[in-house]
Amino acid sequence: DSRVMLTYPRVQVIGFDMATSLEFLGGLGLWGEVALTLHEDLYRVVATGPVLGVNEAERELEKGSFVKAVIGMDYTPISWMYINVQYLYGFLDEFGSGNLQNYLVAGIDFKLARDKLLIRTFSIVNLDDGSFVLFPAIQVKAWSGGSILLGAFLYSSILPDSDPAKKFESPAAGKSNFFLQARANF
To answer: Residue 107: which residues within 8 A CB-CB, separation 6 or more?
Structure first.
């Protein structure tokens, strides 16, 4: 028998955000967020029982603090086109001062045929290791209250080598996939 006990450190987050729209630039939207995270020690407890006799508490991360931030802009230059660009310091799944990386998120939407057709392409690029995820999609509003979406999540790297430690090429990210989704509201 073995037993793994997950513990969660006490975490306090102090943050600030701002957003504005610059009308003199055609309604260009700007935003930013900064968060300071203060946390206790993070432990992993492993108990294997009397046969192996391992009963350990391993400290994964010492008590400390770290800052995550995002700045971004969005713009609709014409009624059927939307552009979004963001810089992230620290992705959603990153925790601790030595684990934060830099990312660029960018995308564009085209709404055509009186908003019945949406063509989207978004991407997240890890600026530290060159890996990325690309999200192309086409959505058709085929009926009132319903739509069909065809898309993909494509994981790869700008750099040719295949390092399993890369964020979006790691086994944890999963394999590239395509999907077809239908929605109906009643």
So the answer is: 83, 84, 85, 120, 121, 122, 123, 135
CA gap 135, 158 in Å, rounded: 15
Nearest CA to 149 out of 120, 185, 112, 111 is that of 120
Tell me if 170 sits within 8 A of 134, measured CB to CB. no
Please give the Cα distance from 88 to 70 (Å, whole number): 4
The secondary structure of 86-124 as a DSSP string is: EEEES-TT--STTS--EEEEEEEEEEETTTTEEEEEEEE
Alpha helices in the chain (DSSP H): none
pLDDT digits (tens, 9 = 90+) for 41-84: 887 776 666 666 666 777 778 899 999 999 999 999 999 999 99
Amino acid at 28: L
Q: How far apart are CA 82 and CA 77, in angstroms?
A: 7
Q: What does the pLDDT look like over 122-166, one tens digit per residue?
A: 999 999 988 899 999 999 998 888 999 999 999 888 766 656 667
Report yes or no: 86 and 68 within 8 Å, Cβ to Cβ: no
- The number of C-alpha atoms within 13 Å of 79 and in the hemisphere containing its C-beta is 4
pTM of the shown model = 0.82
